[in-house]
Write a structure and sequence with these properties.
The chain is mainly α. The chain has one domain (2-69, 79-132). It has helices spanning 2-33, 42-64, 78-107, 111-132. Helix 1 (2-33) packs antiparallel against helix 4 (111-132). It starts with a helix and ends in a 14-residue tail after the last helix. The model has no long low-confidence stretch (mean pLDDT 96). The structure holds protoporphyrin IX containing FE (HEM). Protoporphyrin IX containing FE binds next to helix 1, helix 2 and helix 3.
């Protein structure tokens, strides 16, 4: 029951994360290249939802998911290897980059410098996240669209 709720939340929130990251990246590009000035909360909202995913993911990973196992032989099973090793590793790298980008941008002197920092770190984070989501078209990962 708790597993189903958290699993559905973690799965559905991917769209919120993807949209907020995209919006923050577009804003950052405009701030960097287009000379658009003024603060935006988009990088913060994206950061918050990325961390919500981290939290939900941790609970699924350590307590609930049947796809996470610490046994011999899981590396030979693509489904168990994906969730036990690949998904968490790539997502944590992505989340670390996004977090580092956010805090670096905070210290940036100008709006353009802020935009450049967010743009680069969030874009790399987004690409890693897109590559590490168990999309339904990736066979053998039991993924859903939402
Ligand atoms: C922005 C970061 C993340 C995104 C967008 C994301 C997205 C997803 C998606 C879309 C699924 C598949 C859900 C489904 O199709 O039913 C999934 C599953 C899963 N994720 Fe993440 N995830 C993220 C970070 C993490 C992290 C950091 C962890 C671990 C600490 C984690 C642990 C898991 C686990 C264990 C599952 C399998 C759940 C199950 O039993 O079905 N995720 N994630």
């Amino acid at each position: 029951m708790l597993y189903q709720i958290l699993d559905r939340a973690h799965s559905g929130l991917r769209w919120v994360v993807l949209l907020l990251l995209l919006a923050a990246i577009v804003w950052a590009f405009q701030a960097w290249k287009g000379g658009r000035s003024g603060a935006s909360k988009l990088p913060l909202y994206a950061l918050i939802f990325v961390h919500v995913q981290l939290l939900l993911g941790m609970v699924l990973y350590w307590f609930l998911s049947p796809y996470v196992r610490f046994e011999a032989g899981i590396m030979k099973d693509p489904l168990l290897r994906f969730y036990t090793v690949e998904h968490i590793t790539m997502m944590i790298i992505a989340i670390t980059l996004i977090t580092a980008g956010y805090s670096r941008a905070k210290k940036a002197a100008s709006d353009a410098a802020k935009g450049k920092t967010i743009f680069i770190f969030y874009l790399i984070g987004l690409v890693l996240i897109l590559a590490s989501i168990p999309w339904p078209f990736r066979s053998g990962l039991n993924g859903n669209w939402y």
